[in-house]
Amino acid sequence: MNSFKSLTTVAIAVLLAGQLVSTVLAAPNDEQKMQLQALKLDIRKTSNYLKRGMVTESVELVRDIQSRMEKLGTSGDAEVAAELQSLAESLAASHGFLEIEGYTLKPLGAPTPGAAPAMMANAPAGLGTPVPPAGAPTPLPTAFPSANLSFTKHIAPIIVARCGNCHVTGSRGGFGAPTFAALMKGPAEGVVIFPGDDIGSRFIETIESGDMPRGGGKVQPAELAALKTWIKEGAKFDGTDPNAPLSQSAPAPNPAEMVRLEVTEASGNEKVSFSMDVAGVLANRCVSCHSGNNPRGGLGMENFARFLRGGDSGAPFLPGKPQESMLVRLIKATGNERMPRNGAPLTADEIAKIETWIQEGGKFDGASAQDDSMQRTHQIALAKKATHDQLAAMRAESSQQKWDLGMPNVKSAKVDSPNFLAYGTMGEESLKEYVATADKAADKVRGLMKIPASTPIVKGKMTLYFFKQRYDYAEFGNMIERRDLPADWKGHYRYDVTDAYGSIQVPAEDGYDLDVLLGQLIASSHVASLGNGTVPEWFSDGVGRVIASRISKSDPRVVAWDNQLEGAFASMSKPDDFVKNRMSPEQNSVVSYAFLKAIMGRGNSFDALMNSLRQGQDFDASFQSAFGMDPSKLAAAWAMSGRR
How many other C-beta atoms are found inside a 10 Å radius of the C-beta of residue 584? Predict the structure, then answer.
C-alpha cells in the first residue's frame, strides 16, 4: 500500500509539473474554494465507507471525486492545481485499496489545463467516417439468392443498416467495422467471422441469440440466412478496396436510427410500478457495474434519466416490446451473455415484472428521474407504502449508518423511545433526560397542532441527534449533509420521506430553551411528513417557528426572529419572495414565520388545511381549498394589510 502511494505521488507530480509551470499564480475564487472543501470532505467519506465495509459506496464516490477533480483542474489556476495535488495524495489510500480489491478506476492524476476530461478521452471513437454514396440509396433487399452472395450488393447493406450506428460509424464495445478489413479483423478479443464456418463465427452467434443488434433494427430471417450463406461460401470480398468505407461498397441505406427514449409519466393504472417493482432490482443487481464515469458497456443506471440514455449498444428497452428489448434479452440469456454477470440470475418473478413494465410502456412513477438514484427511487416507494412500524425499522437502519459515518470512533449513547430514536455524544443517562424533554415537547406540539391521539407525530418515528459540542454538530452537517451549517444555527431538521431527523446542539446554561428548539423541529417534521411529500419547506419551517413562539415567546431564539422581521420585510421585492425562495435561507424562514403566524390565527381555515394534508392530499390543492387562493395571492393580501 505504501509503495502504491509513493508511486502515485510521483506520477501526480509529473502530471502536474507542466501545469504548475504554465499557470499564472492566482487565488482560487469562492466557488473553487467551495468545490475544494467539498472534495476534501468526500475524500474523508471514502475512508469512512471502507472502514464500515461499504465498498461499493466508496467506489462510486471515488469515481465521482475524480471526475470533479478533472473538471476543476482545467481552470488553469496554480493554487487550485496545488490543492488538487494534495487532495489526490489524500485520495491515494482509498484509491489504492480499491484497485487492489479488483475495481477498475481511472489513474489517480489531474488533467493539464485545456485537456479534455479523461471520461471523454475514454469514450469510444469511430475508426473512420463513411463517405455518403453517390445518388439516392437503394432499399435494403428483402430477398436474397440462395447461393453466390455478394458482399457489396447483399452483405454490406445489411451490416450498415443493422449495425451501422454502433460498429460502422462508431466503435461500440471496442469493435469498429467501418471497412471490410476491420470487420474481418474483429475486436481486440479476437476474430468474429471465420470464413466457411458460420456456426463457429461469433458474428452469427450474437445475432441468433438476440444479443445483437442492440441499437438498430432487428436482423430479419432472410438477412440472417444471407449472412450465414456468405460466411459458408468463404466470406469473400468482391469490392475493389477492402479498406474503403462500407458505405462505398454499394449504395446502401442509411443506418437505422438509434432509439431515443424520454421519460414518460405513469398513469397510476399500470400493473407494475417502476419505483416499487423494478428500481430496486436494478439498484441491487445492476448499478454496481453500471455507474460512475466508466459504466460497463457505457450504460449508466445511477438514475432513471441516465438509464434511458442507453449505452454503447443503444436504448436499454423498446417501450411495448419486451422481447425485442436489450435489457430483457440480456437478463434472460445464458452463459457468459447473461446479466448480471456476477451472482445468481434474476428470479422468474423479477424478470416477469420487468417484461410487464416494458410492455406497459416503460413509464416512470418516481419523484425525480434526474435527481433521485435508483436506490432512492425504490426507497421512497417503500417508505410511502410502509406501515409506521415498518418505516421505523427502515429509518433505524439508516439512522445508524448516518451516525457511524458522521461520528466515527466517537463515544456515544443510543436511546429508543416510542416517539424517538436518539443518539448523542454524551452518556446514556444524560441522553435519556434529553429524550424525556423531547417527549414533553412532543406532547405540547400534539396539543397546539390538534394532532389526533391515534396518529403518530411523524410516521416511522423521528431520529434525534444530540451534540454537546458545536464542532460535532457542524461536523455531522458536513459529513452527512455535505454543507457548512450557519454559525447561528443551534439545531435543524431534515425530512425527505425516507429520513426524518433533527440535529441539535445541546444548549449551555442560560443559553436557549431546549424544549422550545425541540418543539420547533418536531412540529416542522410533522408538517413536512404530511401531504404525501408535497408540503414546501417554507411552510413546514414557518409552522415550526410559530409553535416554538407559542411554547415560549421569551426564548432568545424567538426574540431574535421577531427582531429580524423589519429588516427581512425591507429586503423583499415581491410579497411572495419567501414562497418562491428568492431570499436568503434565514430571511426566508423569518418571513415564513411571520406569514404562518398570521394564517394560523385563522383557526378554521388552517385546521381545514391541516386535516386535508393529514389525509394525504396535495399541498397546493389543500391550500387553495382552505383559503380560497394560492399562497402567492394570500401573501400579496397579507402584505396589503400591513403584514398583520
Answer: 12
